[in-house]
Structure formats: C-alpha cells, structure tokens
UniProtKB/TrEMBL annotation:
Its EC number is 2.3.3.13. Residues 10-272 form the Pyruvate carboxyltransferase domain. Pathway: Amino-acid biosynthesis; L-leucine biosynthesis; L-leucine from 3-methyl-2-oxobutanoate: step 1/4. Keywords: Amino-acid biosynthesis, Branched-chain amino acid biosynthesis, Leucine biosynthesis, Manganese, Metal-binding, Transferase. The lineage of its organism: Bacteria, Bacillati, Bacillota, Bacilli, Bacillales. This is 2-isopropylmalate synthase. The keyword Phosphoprotein does not apply. Belongs to the alpha-IPM synthase/homocitrate synthase family. LeuA type 1 subfamily. The keyword Manganese applies. It is an enzyme of class 2 (transferase). It comes from the Bacteria.
Length: 518
C-alpha cells in the first residue's frame, strides 16, 4: 500500500465497470461486474463507478447489487444531467453505505453547438438545475464538465461556478478526447481553482483519455495542480484508446513519490491479479509491452542487462515485480543471453551441470537461439536432458488427434511420454480444446489443478498461428505454460503440458515462471 502520512493522499476513482466497459468489444454480465467489483474493493479502490443505471435493466441490477454488497467502498451512480438518469442512479445506489451521484453535461463549444444544439445559456441553466436536484438525495455530488480540456476558460469557469453554487462538492475536469498536453491540462486545474468563485472550497478530479498516449502524464499534471482524485480504469481500458491506466498511475506515484509528493490506498500486491481478471472477463489481451503488467515489463534478454540484474536487481529494474504480485520471470533466454543467465536458470530448476556439460549446453542453446530468437524453458529442459543425460521433464505430448463437428461429439486422443513410458488417453469435451485438456489431465498428477486458459490469434492467412496461455496450480502456487502453434488445439495441449512440467519441477527452489513452447 502506498499510504504515507508525509504525502498528500489521492483518492482513486475506478470506472472500469462503466467507462471501461464502453470499450468496443468489451461487455460484462451483471454477475461478472459484481465479481470484479469485489476484486476492485480488495485492491483498495476508494470509489467504484459500477455502471450507467439508466442504460439497461442489467446495468441497474448490477449497480444495485454492488451497492448492497460492498459497504466498505463508496459507490458512484452515473447520470446525464437529466432527471430520469439521476432518479435511476439514486435508486440503484440507495442501499450503499456511502454513495455519490456523478452527473455530466458538455461544456465545450464544439459539443454544445454540434451535439446538444442548444444555446450555452440553456446548458448552463440545466447544469445548475440538475446539480441542485441531485443534491437533494446525497451530500456528495460530482459534476463533470464534459470536454473541459477544449472549453474556453471563461466558459469553463462559469459552468464550474454554477455547479458549485448548486451544491456540487467534487468538480471533474476531463480530457474527454485525449487532446490536452500535460502543461495545458495542469494549468486548466490551476486557473479554475483560483478563478472560480468557491473554487477553493471543493475537491477536483481528473478523468483523462489516452488518444495521444498522455492520459497518465495528464493525470500527474492534474495532481501537481491540486486534483485530489484521479479517475482510472484497470489496464487503461475504455472508449477508443482508453483511459488513464490505474497500474501505471499507481506505480508512477509509488516509484517517483519523492518528487510527486502523493500517495494512495492501493494495495500493490493486488495489481497484477486484478489486471488479469479484467483482461479475462473483458476478453482484452494485455499488450506484451504494456507498462507494469505486460509480459515484457520485467523480462530481459540482453546479456548485459541479465548480468546486471543477477548481481543487483536495481541495475535495470525500477520496480519490484514480486511486490506487485507478478511471478518472477525477469530473464528471457535468447540469442543475446550469456552464460551467466543460462547457468542461473538451470540452477533454479535444480540442476548443477559441470563445466564441460555447461559448455555443451551453451553451444546447443546458442544454435537454437540463433534460429528462433527466444528459447523456451521447455526447450531448455530438453537440452538439459540431452547434455546431462538425465530426465528433466515429467510429461511430453507426443501425439494429438481430435474429432470435432456440429453433428458429432468433440473427442480427443493423446499420447503422453513420461518416465514410465508412453501412454494413450482419450476424452470427450464441450469443444476440441476442452476434450484435449481433459485427455491430458488423466495423465497429470492429481495435485496439479487447471486454473484458466487464454487464446490469442497471432496472425492470419496461410501462415496463421495461435498462442495459448494456460495456468495451473500446485501447492498454492501458480505456474503458466505458453505455446505457439499453427494448430490452435495443439497450442493448447502444448501449453497445458508446459505448465504441468513447470509445476512438477523437482527442485523446491524453482520459481513460478512462464514456460514458452514454440
């Protein structure tokens, strides 16, 4: 947790379940929203905006259920500056222990002239009337001047003054289309705070979109200029290119808190798990190079970087992945890797090659790495088996046959090689992938449990390939296997076997790492 009494505390307002779900292709069922809201509460979120109650019966039901179940978190009901919207938000959040009503109306010329098509005076009057109406139901009303970053300063100050006079206690100045530069966005907060009547008596919130890749930078600029609440989404999901990413903002505050002078109540060790849950629920894969939670965020292939990391993590890492709940997998073995990294990885798996074996292993490793860039742990263990003449893998998928179709059962037959020899297994499943997993599972140790699976298409056309990522659990620890193959069912089978091999490593010191098969 980043709480520090010597730093100014920033409230984190999470809108993953409302603005995040507005991302094209993202959709959540009410029960999924409820489950994710519980995870957000565990993460330490101060305010949750679970949805847009007026938009559908399902949305209303989800907001209502979350309001009833999460009594420790402030729940926000989202509404346009319309009585019907406000009434729905009030009713949906009626059972919340702490609640606020969040209403918005456009403030920029381009929105008022082309979208609302009303005189500015009428829009300002509506803002006053609707804030006053919402204030009857709750002491906490947040007012958003939509497209504030493109609004003339005098017009923006006028609308903010009206909202404050009508009872708004939180003023949100969003960069709705991700247009502002950090110095402009920060200056807007300073001028509104100093120029609006009553501007020093309310709290300020920032809601930034990422169209120019500046959402986090703009949010930090807002904090520097008096904002005490930042509106975020997990993984930065949201309309168009998304919103300010919670994990990036939090780690900027954590890593550079000495300069920024601000902290939050977020529990760092929950960041990675929350990111994964949102990604799975919304079917939004996380980019490999995504800061903080992306696969490559704490992985290093360069021999120089690997050598430095093995001597002292701080040489090339400014954050500790394990403190964020991220499995330690900082070394990726590839053609740029050196002997030190290779030897360190082999030792972590419980093997101690002598000098001659190490040289043989390094030669085989470099030959493979030159051909395919990255060497997976699964392949490395095969090399260890060859050079040290000892078994280094518990399971190997030798052959796979599947039957699928709309008029037939989905069946899979596999042949698995273990230390006891080769054995065949078959199973029926809801689909060819499920049948494959069920068949392989018959050979796997009972204390290894399947957790989840992700599938990604990596390319199209004749050379199309797919990636499967499978997580298993053993003795309370998770192990992941990743496989890439032109056959998506084969990729799933290989990934499952790879994960089980990682979980079955004999050395107790072996780390929970991602295993890749190519």
């Amino acid at each position: 947790m980043t709480t520090n009494p010597n730093k100014r505390m920033i409230d984190i307002f999470d809108t993953t379940l409302r603005d995040g779900e507005q991302a094209p292709g993202a959709s959540l069922q009410p029960e999924q929203k409820i489950e994710l809201a519980h995870q957000l509460a565990s993460l330490g979120i101060d305010v949750i905006e679970p949805g847009f109650p007026i938009s559908s019966p399902g949305e209303f039901a989800a907001v209502q259920a979350i309001s009833r179940q999460l009594q420790q978190v402030e729940i926000c009901g989202f509404a346009r500056a319309v009585k019907g919207d406000i009434d729905a938000a009030v009713k949906a959040t009626a059972d919340a222990a702490r609640r606020r009503i969040h209403l918005f109306i456009s403030s920029s010329d381009i929105h008022i002239e082309h979208q609302l098509r009303r005189p500015r005076s009428e829009v300002v009057a509506t803002a006053r009337e609707m804030v006053s109406y919402a204030r009857q139901f709750t002491d906490i009303v947040e007012f958003t001047a939509m497209d504030a970053a493109r609004t003339k300063m005098d017009d923006l100050i006028e609308m903010v003054e009206v909202a404050i006079e009508a009872g708004a206690s939180i003023i949100n100045l969003p960069d709705t289309v991700g247009y502002a530069l950090p110095h402009e966005y920060g200056e807007m907060f300073r001028r509104v705070r100093e120029g609006a009547r009553g501007g020093d008596q309310v709290r300020y919130s920032a809601h930034c979109h990422n169209d120019l890749g500046l959402a986090v930078a703009n949010s930090l600029a807002a904090i520097a200029n008096g904002a005490s609440q930042i509106e975020v989404t997990i993984n930065g999901i949201g309309e168009r290119t998304g919103n300010c990413a919670l994990e990036e903002l939090i780690m900027a505050l954590e890593t550079r808190g000495d300069v920024i002078g601000a902290a939050t109540n977020i529990k760092l060790n929950q960041l990675y798990e929350t990111s994964r849950q949102i990604s799975r629920a919304m079917h939004f894969p996380i980019a490999y190079n995504k800061p903080v939670v992306g696969r490559n965020a704490f992985q290093h292939e360069s021999g120089i970087h690997q050598d430095g990391l093995l001597k002292n993590r701080n040489t090339y890492e400014i954050m500790d992945p394990e403190a964020l709940g991220i499995p330690r997998s900082m070394i990726i073995l590839g053609k740029h890797s050196g002997r030190h990294a290779l030897k360190d990885r082999v030792r972590k798996y419980g093997f101690e090659p002598d000098e001659q074996q190490m040289e043989q292993l390094y030669e085989v490793f470099k030959e493979t790495a030159d051909q395919q860039k990255v060497v997976s742990d699964d392949q490395l263990l095969q090399m260890v088996s060859q050079t040290m003449n000892i078994p280094a893998q518990d399971y190997e998928l030798v052959e796979l046959q599947v039957t699928a179709g709309s008029m037939t059962d989905r069946m899979a037959a596999v042949r698995i090689r273990t230390s006891a020899g080769e054995h065949s297994y078959s199973a029926v499943g809801s689909g060819p992938v499920d049948a494959t997993i069920q068949a392989i599972a018959q050979c796997i140790s009972d204390d290894i449990t399947f957790v989840d699976m992700e599938m990604h298409a990596l390319s199209g056309g004749e050379g199309a390939s797919a990636e499967a990522v499978i997580t298993v659990e053993r003795a309370g620890r998770e192990f992941r296997g990743t496989a890439t193959h032109h056959d998506i069912v084969m990729a799933a089978g290989l990934a499952y076997v790879a994960a089980c091999n990682a979980a079955g490593l004999k050395a107790e010191s072996a780390e929970s790492e991602e295993v890749s098969v190519h």
